[in-house]
Amino acid sequence: MSRLASFILLPLFICLGMPSAVAADLVLKPAATVKGAIIHLGDIFAGTGTRATVGIAEAPPPGSKMILGSDWLAALARSQHLDWHPGSGFDQVVVERASRIIGADEIVDQLKQVLQNRTPLDGAEVKLDHGDLRLAVAMDASSTLVFGDITYDPASGRFATTVSTADGGSVPNQLRLSGQIVRYSEVPTPTRLIAPGEVIGKDDVVMVRLRNDRLAQGVVTQLSDLVGMTPRRSLQPGEAVRAADIVVPVVVHRNSLVTIVLETPTMHLTAEGKATEDGGLGAVIRVANTHSNRVIDAVVTGPNTVRVESPL
């Protein structure tokens, strides 16, 4: 018999002046399931007649069991004036408190409403450290949960609190729970392995929802910022891309011949030049006029084509 049973059960046994029940009428039940907070005499013995509703002990917490051994049962029989004696030291009754389960999903649903008062969730997920958390409550207990003071770290999204049922009768102590608020962002990621030098096309990337806490700083968040670029290193499918890992593709190479274009509302002039450095589309590079040897700044407008704003 547990310390709990010896402490809270024996004081309930005092019942003087009652007539003894006939032993032949009494049958010890090896197991009993009780719905309420009190164990009754009829839960332990069959054949107690009108005394079946006599309360004899507190029931165990919802979802848990209590084993009543032969010594305890003998003391019960004496206190209740029952003509019953243990047949052996192995006589016992297993008493279980009927309960229903509030699972992790229901706990999270109610927890979200509380967390919303601390920080906007905006589509974020609330993940418990123990996803199999189960709260056993009495059959007639309220489904409303009570959460204690919440500690929350905005940087990591970590939180901790306690939970119990509104009527306080769900478990002997509050359950402590912890977890994380996980936020997500839509970012473009490659659909295939893209090697350095390849130009990233629209069909090479797709928007994917990824956890913010797993994104490196400086990742590209817009599809338009990735399409048309080329990687400095191989890009893996499904991984976010940092802005530092991509560059504008080189369309004019150092020492290559280029066409220099000067265009105004009244004229269109071209000349041959030589690039002194690599340049991607829109980049400003230094170009030498092959006829005058004059070196000027020019904007790359296409493969081996540059534009100048001043006379050649």
What does it look like?
The longest helix is centred in the middle third of the chain and has 12 residues, at 104-115. The protein has 312 residues and is mainly β. 10% of the residues lie in helices and 36% in strands. The strands form 9 sheets. Strands 9, 11, 12, 13 and 14 form a 5-stranded antiparallel sheet that branches. The protein has a 5-stranded mixed barrel with strand order 20-21-23-24-25. A 3-stranded mixed sheet has the order 2-7-6.
Secondary structure elements and pairings:
Layout: H1 3-8, E1 27-28, E2 31-34, E3 38-40, H2 41-44, E4 45-46, E5 55-58, E6 65-68, H3 70-79, E7 93-97, E8 99-102, H4 104-115, E9 125-128, E10 135-138, E11 145-147, E12 151-152, E13 158-165, E14 175-182, E15 184-190, E16 205-211, E17 230-231, E18 246-247, E19 250-252, E20 257-263, E21 268-275, E22 279-280, E23 284-289, E24 295-302, E25 305-308
Parallel strand pairs: 2-7, 20-25
Antiparallel strand pairs: 1-4, 3-5, 6-7, 8-10, 9-14, 11-13, 12-13, 13-14, 15-16, 17-18, 19-22, 20-21, 21-23, 23-24, 24-25
Describe the largest sheet.
Answer: 5 strands, antiparallel
Q: What is the level 1 CATH name of the largest domain?
A: Mainly Beta
How would you describe the shape?
A: rod-shaped
Q: Helix content range of the residues, please?
A: 10-25%
Which stretches are poorly predicted, pLDDT < 50 over at least 5 residues?
1-8, 13-18, 168-172
Structural class of the secondary structure composition?
Answer: mainly beta
**What is the count of structural domains?**
4
Strand percent estimate: 35-45%
- C-alpha end-to-end distance: 104 Å
The CATH topology of the largest domain, please? eubacterium ventriosum atcc fold
Series of H and E elements: HEEEHEEEHEEHEEEEEEEEEEEEEEEEE
What is the CATH-assigned architecture of the largest domain? Answer: Sandwich
Counting DSSP H or I runs of 4 or more residues, the number of helices is 4
The tally of strands reads 25
Mean pLDDT: 87
Radius of gyration, in angstroms, nearest whole number: 40 Å
